[in-house]
Design brief:
Blueprint lengths: L8 H11 L3 H11 L26 H30 L5 H12 L2
Length: 108
């Protein structure tokens, strides 16, 4: 069966080489895309990007829509980072390797 994926084999190999067993790299990406207020951050570098949404001049309905959109973007980035982690840890084996493994297991 030939299944087409959004990510090519070459891109999958790149993901694996960058992120397989490398949670620190994923944490760094998370820190870059979803910065959080941190009491240990140096002065002037503590910035909560997601709370800079100006709602002062908006109606309550507009503010709610903007805050919901903000929450959606945060969730989307988190899901993308989790997808990278899953793809990086995914085992790759050919059909022949799978058949061979199944035959070995069935002969035990």
């Amino acid at each position: 069966m030939n299944k087409e994926m959004r990510i090519t084999d070459e891109e999958l190999q790149l993901i694996k080489s960058l992120y397989a067993e490398n949670n620190e790299a994923l944490k760094l990406l998370r820190k870059v895309f979803l910065p959080e207020v941190n009491s240990k951050a140096p002065l002037g570098q503590n910035f909560d990007l997601w709370m800079t949404l100006k709602v002062d001049d908006l109606t309550p309905e507009e503010a709610l829509i903007n805050l919901k959109a903000r929450n959606f973007v945060i969730g989307h980035v988190e899901q993308c980072l989790m997808q990278l982690a899953l793809l990086a840890g995914q085992k790759t084996e050919s059909v022949e390797e799978t058949k061979k493994k199944l035959q070995q297991n069935s002969s035990k």
